[in-house]
Amino acid sequence: MIPGDALVEAALVASSADETLVVVTDTAEASLRWADNSMTTNGSVRARTATVVAIRRTAGSSHCGVVTAAVTDGDDIAALTAAAADAADRAPAAPDAMPLLAGDGPDEQWGLPAAGTDIDVFTPVVDDLTGGFDEADALYGFAHHQVHTLWLGSSTGLRRRWVQRDGSIEINGKRGGLSGPSAWVGAGTVDFTDLAMPALRTELARRLDWAGTRIELPAGRYETILPSSVVADLMIPLLWSLDGRGAEEGRSVWAGPDGTRLGQRIAALPVTLTSDPAAPGLGYAPFVTATTSTDSISLFDTGMSCGRVDWIRDGALHALAYPRSAAAEFGAVATAPGENLLLTGGNGADLDDLVAGTERGLLLTTVWYLREVDPAVLLLTGLTRDGVYLVEDGQVRGAVNNFRFNESPVDLLGRATEIGATERTLPREWKDWFTRTAMPPMRIPDFHMSSVSTAQ
Predict the structure, then answer these.
(1) Which residues, at least 6 apart from 180, have a Cβ–Cβ distance to it below 8 Å?
(2) Positive or negative torsion for Cα 43, 125, 39, 232
């Protein structure tokens, strides 16, 4: 295939638009799957996409045409750029139009080839994983590694390259056959060399041990301990809600009576919710790469530098996401959405410490099927899954039935009575879209289990 940097340059030359953005992404993936204590499939794939954004500037307006296609050689470039220019000619005026950002030459890595991966990346975990196949519990699961190499170029001189590496492993355990209790553990990683597989398997076995006793409970409000994975699943929708325009226009939980809630105290405890492209093990591209526009991000901001953003600082709302056009409109600071999420400022306690300090409550280990009910308060509904446990006098007494719950992550921050030590974790519900999180366990005094669920 034509190298990614060369494809960008060729597309910029071929484009007939007034201004052009080109994003080329080479993707390498490897996966490993197992079921009922046997490896079932493994494989690796490579793919490439190229996106051309053609911009027509007319008196007082700008028009964008965006076309994405699989491009492998130079013969595809002319058709791709022509299609983007044609789309721009037919597009309505862009409400977020701004001057494209200028570049100052290519990155040092610009001319390097695409990075890759293959099934050998799983070598550090395979031996320990398959060692579990000889034990009594049936193991099911999936390991996945993705490497994206991105080249970004513009007719205004931007030349940026980034390699993003993300991996994850999930293990489900079943005890006593398919109708028996189940439990889940998972972890995120960059390259699988940092995973503590024995600890994951030990935790999985412990949760299945807890399920040896079955207890039925009614719906209601319970003191509930949320492990870091569940906290991640609940905080990610909060991150996605942090667009400034929605708040300014009164369409979101962040709208106040006289504008936004910036500066208002959100959390009961002095925690900080952060996105940081330089976070160790959780990094992402330190520049915007947008090929479409939303309330949070604009394709005209492509190439804009990204730094650390404290969305909530010491318990108070500190920042919202504004594209440059919205920032100019509302007198705000242009801020890009985050691609990782870290919640810090807890007391250093781990999950076992929170359990030990519980007189009576629930330990909720995973959630799924999360859906937004009311954006005005960011109310979410979802189901518990693979293990809800009753805690009494600091000890887990057994597994209870599943529930449907209704909660707002904003309200949870406001009601949390204990927040523990931050650790890297894997969200289960949002793993296919968002894996880079570091969260603490959290204690909620009155988590709302709205109804009993028959889901297994």
Answers:
(1) 174
(2) negative
Q: Which of 64, 45, 2 is closest to 291 using CA atoms?
A: 64
Distance CA(394)–CA(355), nearest Å, equals: 5
Average pLDDT over residues 34-45: 95
- Could you please report the per-residue DSSP string of 349-372? --HHHHHHT-SEEEEE--EEEEEE
Enumerate domains of the chain plus CATH numbers: 4-208 (3.30.2290.10), 213-287+339-456 (no CATH)
69: its two tokens: 């296609």
Q: Is residue 455 pLDDT above 80, yes or no?
A: no
Q: What is the mean pLDDT of residues 1-15?
A: 94
The Cα 239–Cα 261 span in angstroms is 15
Task: Please state, in angstroms and as integers, the Cα–Cα distance from residue 331 to each residue in 116, 252, 301, 327, 334, following that order.
Answer: 43, 19, 17, 5, 9
Distance between CA 236 and CA 433 in Å, rounded?
A: 10
Token pair 């992550």 in the structure block, residue: 409
The residues facing 168 across adjacent strands are 144, 188
Q: Which pairs from 197-202 meet CB under 8 Å and 24+ separation?
A: 197/125, 197/128, 197/129, 198/128, 200/169, 200/171, 201/128, 201/132, 201/171
Residue 239 phi/psi, 5-degree rounding, is -60, -45
The β-bridge partners of 55 are 19, 64
pLDDT at position 217 is: 97
> What are 303's strand-pairing partners?
none
Proportion of the chain above pLDDT 70, given as a percent:
100
Model-level pTM?
A: 0.95
**Secondary structure class of 243 (helix, strand, coil):** strand
DSSP string, 129-140: HHHGGGSSSEEE
DSSP 432: T
The Cα 195–Cα 143 span in angstroms is: 12
DSSP annotation of 337 reads: P
CA distance 367 to 402: 10
Residue with structure tokens 């007494």? 397
